[in-house]
């Protein structure tokens, strides 16, 4: 599992898990609107929300009892709409097929989940305690950073500059497109 040069199995599994979670969102009555809504939708029940993780309070308009640390991870597998899912999964595919064969599956998965946790904690710091956020963007930005470092270490200037452009484009999508 940790060998280099093989097929990017973890990349495909992560894409599949995100797609399955999105289908769950659709069947639960959310996911297609391009917005994150609290309440009866899976995004509201599993999305990242400081009040639901901490001592309780409101997440959007819904009261929460708190004590739900699982949201730090589950929120990264939920998405605000099909465009949000598509952009994140495209980036995961490109980065995963580049990085995973180069460093091995175990290292790739470790980078992905450390970046996912860092992205979740960053979102908690940057948003209101009652705001629900979702998406794999934190993990994706972590993979971009890893790809940049790997390319730099291996002297691949062209890939290094392409990753820089990829980061800029993702930042533009993140802040300019509603629902992302």
Structure write-up:
- It is a single chain.
- The protein has eight helices and two strands, in the order αααββααααα.
- The chain is mainly alpha-helical and 180 residues long.
- A hairpin with a 2-residue loop joins strand 1 (57-59) and strand 2.
- Helix 1 runs antiparallel to helix 5, helix 5 runs parallel beside helix 7 (137-153) and helix 6 packs across helix 7 (137-153).
- The longest helix is centred in the middle third of the chain and has 22 residues, at 82-103.
- The chain is elongated.
- The chain starts with 8 loop residues before the first helix and ends with a helix.
- The model has no long low-confidence stretch (mean pLDDT 85).
